[in-house]
Design goal:
Elements: H1 3-23, E1 31-39, E2 45-53, H2 58-67, H3 69-79, E3 87-92, H4 95-114
Helix pairs in contact: 1-3
């Protein structure tokens, strides 16, 4: 992966994060975190991976982001100094949930070993 590719992914991550924090009215009692961005080789599309707390609000948060993707894309287009700007799409990041599940299993094993 080239330096430019990494730089574009990082800029998209920062810009989306800033837009969500400062310019969007997020649903109450929901925390949306941008974990990473994966752009295709041509930099025409980018998947923005999000983690949602609490887990049971993930579908609602992704629906909220999908409804507002046009506005978010427009703001990113204004902020980034490149053309064309990759088209963004929000995707659930399942890695934190998987890590929590593995940690839970490891804790159960530790408890059983102590007995």
């Amino acid at each position: 992966m080239s330096f430019r590719h990494q730089r574009v992914e990082e800029l998209i991550k920062r810009n989306v994060d800033t837009i969500l924090l400062k310019e969007m009215e997020l649903p109450k009692d929901v925390v949306i975190t941008i974990t990473h961005v994966k752009a295709n080789d041509k930099l025409s599309d980018a998947d923005v991976f999000v983690s949602v707390i609490p887990d049971n609000q993930t579908k609602d948060a992704l629906a909220f982001l999908a409804r507002n993707v046009y506005n978010i894309q427009q703001q990113i287009n204004k902020k980034m100094q490149m053309r064309p700007v990759p088209k963004i799409r929000f995707v659930e990041d399942k890695i934190p949930a998987q890590a929590a599940h593995i940690e839970k299993i490891l804790n159960e094993i530790k408890k059983q070993d102590k007995k």
